[in-house]
Design brief:
The chain is of the alpha/beta class. It contains 13 helices and five strands.
């Protein structure tokens, strides 16, 4: 006849094993420090998932390309950071830093670089991390589409990989820093505005954004296909910005507002009819300020049809 004590020990041992197996199957369910049942690790809410957007950040770092450097807004062929929509000091622009910060000179930094593509963004992020800004703004991608030919445009997969890497580096280093991402402007709108302007066409011959702006008077099938290809690539880049940003609770995409903005000739530099003028920089600052200080982020809007 079996020993009752041995039977009880066998039952207890198997109960422990069974509990261990169930814990593994349920993702690590166990007891918390209060003695209650703890949530499975995979189901716990991450701290950043409940983060609240601060509409009054105390410091700003700007990343991106020549648009954020104010290139050609003052003098030919040079950066004019004082006119930058993000961190500039020109009162006619009223940059984001001027509108939001008590001491813009001490609490804002511009790490954008003329000619930068999305491949340069991870490096700019690491420079910004050293300053520990409360808000990082990123306007990047125009140079990825503006190449000598459409064949040289950055593939969408590479654009996605680089932007994702940059945002991950920022988030790993600064988990509480907010990010604002404007959409890339509509380059086809530039062509539509400038193709009837003799001065613009003359400047464009120097090689500005050849993929879109070369041979501006050519309305043939191949030229139309080339311009539409650039338009579609910019739209695809913006989709990447939107989707990657959406995965981060502290990242705001502009909903496509900059891409869809019906800018006019007055918003373009008279030096190259490509980069923003002071007026154009001020409009970028308007959009950014309104969206950053809003209680809720902008809703995504489908792109409008391209200009003919």
């Amino acid at each position: 006849m079996p020993d009752p004590r041995r039977c009880r020990r066998w039952i207890r041992a198997n109960a422990v094993v069974t509990a261990a197996v169930l814990m593994g199957l349920l993702g690590g369910t166990g007891c918390d420090e209060t003695g209650g049942v703890a949530e499975p690790a995979a189901r716990r809410t991450k701290p950043e998932a409940i983060a609240h957007w601060d509409t009054t950040p105390g410091s700003i770092a700007a990343l991106g390309d020549s648009i954020t450097r104010g290139f050609n807004a003052c003098e030919p062929m040079r950066d004019c950071p004082e006119t930058s929509w993000a961190t500039g000091t020109d009162p006619r622009v009223r940059s984001l830093a001027q509108r939001m910060l008590k001491n813009p000179k001490r609490s804002s930094w511009n790490f954008a670089k003329t000619g930068a593509t999305v491949a340069d963004l991870p490096g700019q992020v690491m420079a910004a991390v050293a300053e520990r800004p409360q808000l990082v703004i990123v306007l990047i991608g125009a140079n990825d589409a503006c190449r000598d030919s459409t064949d040289l445009m950055t593939p969408v997969s590479e654009f996605r990989a680089e932007f994702t890497t940059a945002l991950k580096r920022l988030r790993d280093a600064l988990p509480r820093t907010q990010v604002y991402v404007p959409s890339i402007p509509d380059l086809k709108r530039l062509w539509s505005l400038g193709r009837h302007n003799p001065a613009a066409k003359q400047v464009w011959k120097l090689g500005i954004c050849g993929s879109m702006l070369s041979k501006p008077d050519d309305l043939g099938k191949a030229a139309k296909k080339r311009r539409q290809h650039v338009y579609d690539r910019v739209a695809a880049y913006n989709t990447v910005l939107r989707r990657v940003c959406h995965e981060d609770p502290l990242c705001r995409y502009d909903g496509g507002e900059v891409f869809d903005y019906r800018f006019a000739v007055k918003h373009l530099s008279r030096l190259d009819f490509f980069h923003p003028s002071r007026t154009g920089q001020a409009r970028l600052a308007d959009v950014a300020y309104r969206q950053i200080t809003a209680e809720k982020s902008a809703r995504y809007r489908s792109p409008r049809l391209p200009a003919s």
